Amino acid sequence: MIQQLMDEHRVIEQMLTALETRINALETAGEFPAAFLTEALDFFRDFADTRHHHKEEDLLFPAMIAAGLPSPGGPVDCMLHEHETGRAYLAAIRANLPAAAEGDPAARDLIRSRATAYIDMLRHHIYKEDNVLFPMAQRLLGADALEAASAR
């Protein structure tokens, strides 16, 4: 399960890089990349949130808490908070996309700021999971319990 989650992180990081490239080019781009942003939002909703975060929130995190990881106030709660923060950034981008596509400078600025915040937050989030939380899960749960959690 852990390796699969880490492999999914690499896919998510590729889309973060593509999003960052487009966001950084907004100042010089002639046409607003509404189609790309819609595709990126769909990817983050469907793959990163629905598929990937589901595995963490419904399988891994509950298993870690059941094995004795503190909650509330523990590392899982921090990860869950960051998942919610990411969802809020994406919702703000999606809500402002039509106005931005029509040329509204305030909507474009909001998209730029929320996308930049999302990219930074999610990169740090992935780093913490890969380097702190997932090794903790492996020590806490062991291979058998991780296998059982992923089979649910």
Please provide a written account of the structure.
With 152 residues, the chain is mainly alpha-helical. Helices cover 86% and strands 0% of the residues. It is built from 4 helices and no strands. Helix 1 (2-24) packs antiparallel against helix 2 and helix 1 packs antiparallel against helix 4 (105-151). The longest helix is centred in the last third of the chain and has 47 residues, at 105-151. The protein is elongated and about 55 Å long.
Poorly predicted spans: none
Largest sheet: none
DSSP helix fraction: over 70%
Number of distinct beta strands: 0
End-to-end separation: 11 Å
Output the structural class.
mainly alpha
- Indicate the proportion of strand residues: under 5%
Roughly what is the average pLDDT, rounded to an integer? 90
Q: What would you report as the Rg, rounded to the nearest angstrom?
A: 17 Å
Count of individual helical segments: 4
Shape: elongated
Order of helices and strands: HHHH
Task: Supply the key terms.
152 residues; single chain; mainly alpha
Kindly summarize this structure in a few lines.
The chain is mainly alpha-helical.
Please describe the topology of this protein.
Blueprint: H1 2-24, H2 34-66, H3 75-101, H4 105-151
Helix pairs in contact: 1-2, 1-4, 2-3, 2-4, 3-4
